[in-house]
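Exercise 7b. Backbone tokens:
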């Protein structure tokens, strides 16, 4: 299975030095979760391999202490298997942490504790384009493309956060960091990311998405820089682009 994964990653023109953010469904990939994570950690050992380890379902006003060593991720089995991997490390963002391996800057880990929104442009989601990294959606829909939240944050799109923050504490070894968080909130669309699919046809026509396979799963591969630049351009023209769940009748370009 590992040999097959290596072959498929090479077919995607991904190198060991590349920086990669992957959202994935273990059910869609098939096989054994430990093997999948071991393979990806090994393959990108000279680069950076990241997955979301979000806790937005569990960290809230009532349960407001985030311990990165013990808090389970709410985004699937693979993220939780990755969290247990001996070569992985988790950022200190209380609701939108990332788990990663490879060439890691220690500042990335602690810096995430300073932010008060889910995906700020100064954070790793926002920096992925600067890193010239890639996004892989593996067996999941376009609504899982969390980077789009970061693009909207960088553009200050209105009606994206709760009006009031909640207090949160973050465990960092023996230190406890006191902070606060604004959660994503849109009253009309509680799950606004479900509207991200609206731009998919236009991205396809621009050839900004490559389609591949990992295991048994369909893969959408995107260069983060291209995604950022394109969606920023569209949001300048249509700031409320994702405030609708209706298909776009015409191309955006």
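Sequence design result:
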């Amino acid at each position: 299975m590992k040999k097959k994964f290596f072959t498929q990653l090479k077919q995607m023109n991904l190198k060991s030095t590349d920086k990669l953010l992957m959202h994935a469904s273990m059910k869609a990939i098939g096989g054994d979760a430990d093997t999948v994570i071991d393979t990806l950690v090994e393959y990108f050992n000279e680069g950076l391999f990241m997955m979301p380890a979000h806790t937005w379902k569990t960290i809230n006003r009532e349960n407001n202490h985030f311990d990165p060593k013990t808090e389970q991720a709410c985004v699937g089995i693979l993220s939780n298997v990755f969290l247990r991997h001996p070569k992985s490390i988790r950022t200190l963002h209380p609701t939108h942490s990332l788990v990663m391996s490879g060439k890691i800057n220690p500042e990335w880990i602690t810096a995430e504790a300073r932010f008060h929104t889910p995906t700020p442009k100064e954070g790793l989601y926002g920096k992925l384009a600067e890193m010239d990294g890639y996004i892989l959606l593996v067996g999941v829909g376009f609504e899982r493309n969390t980077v789009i939240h970061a693009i909207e944050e960088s553009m200050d799109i209105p009606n994206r956060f709760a009006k009031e923050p909640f207090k949160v504490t973050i465990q960092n070894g023996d230190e406890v960091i006191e902070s606060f968080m604004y959660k994503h909130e849109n009253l009309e669309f509680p799950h606004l990311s479900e509207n991200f699919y609206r731009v998919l046809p236009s991205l396809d026509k621009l050839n900004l998405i490559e389609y591949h396979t990992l295991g048994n799963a369909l893969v959408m591969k995107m260069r983060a820089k291209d995604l950022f630049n394109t969606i920023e351009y569209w949001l300048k023209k249509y700031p409320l682009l994702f405030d609708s769940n209706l298909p776009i009748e015409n191309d955006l370009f």
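Instructor comment: The chain has a mean pLDDT of 96. The longest helix spans residues 224-237.
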